[in-house]
Amino acid sequence: MALHAIVRVSRVGMIMADDRPPRTPSQDQKDHRAALLIIDMVNCFDFAEAEILKPKAASAAQAICRLKESVAQQRWPVIYANDNFGEWHSERARLVDRALEQENPVTALLKPGDDDFFIIKPQFSGFYATNLPVLLPKLGVSRLILTGIATDICVLFTAADAHMRDYALWIPEDAVAAESDERSHWALDIMARSMGAETSPTTKLTPDQWLTGLAD
User: What is the pLDDT of residues 10-21, one digit of tens each?
Assistant: First the structure.
């Protein structure tokens, strides 16, 4: 059973048939675009210590929302990489509906749009046992903006896998969150020092400025 299917939603909100592929080029592209990766923000927050993480995730969601608007203006891809939270038969719509069964400002603010990609991941990294390594080259992506939760777990593991694949990284410190601020800062320091990641917040850096800096 493929646990890593990419699921799309039509403009009328209905799940597309499994045999309808995402709108991606048939060949790898060479555009060197950036993509926004949103990690585990479709979330029920029903785990231990969730009450500690929820307000921090809500703050990060505001920054991610601003990034989504900027990325949309550039026509760059937005990709959700989300845990299945133990629902091994699950899909995008079911995960979103479950997360919104109760008041949930994080998922409500960042509910995936019709043109967003959605990848279900079985482990911490967005690259592990998913279609992400195939999807990114087809979209012409060589630079990733990583956001979401938790900074010291899924964001860190995804960043490490991205770094090993030579993706340039921006991990805005105000667009990620963890239960422990100390561990969040520790993880950001590792990603900056060991992976060459940019970690400036969205209040001090825009996607355009980041890409311009990479080109200099």
Answer: 333 333 444 454
> Tokens 């799309």 appear where?
8
Q: How far apart are CA 197 and CA 147, in angstroms?
A: 12
**Pairing assessment for the beta strands 6-7 and 117-121 based on DSSP bridges:** antiparallel
Predicted structure pTM score? 0.86
Strands (E) in 141-210, as ranges, are 141-149, 168-170, 176-177
Name the DSSP letter for residue 61: H
Q: What single-letter amino acid sits at 121?
A: K
Model pLDDT for residues 130-188, shown as the tens digit of each residue? 999 999 999 999 999 999 999 999 999 999 999 999 999 999 999 999 999 999 999 99
Angle at CA 2, nearest 5°, toward 34 and 128? Answer: 45
Q: Which two tokens stand for residue 116?
A: 């967003």
Distance of CA 126 to the CA centre of its chain: 8
Any idea which residue has 């080109």 for tokens? 215
Task: Convert 66-79 to b/e letters by CB count within 10 Å (16 or more is b).
Answer: bbbeebeeeebbbb
Give phi and psi for 197, each to the nearest 5: -75, 140
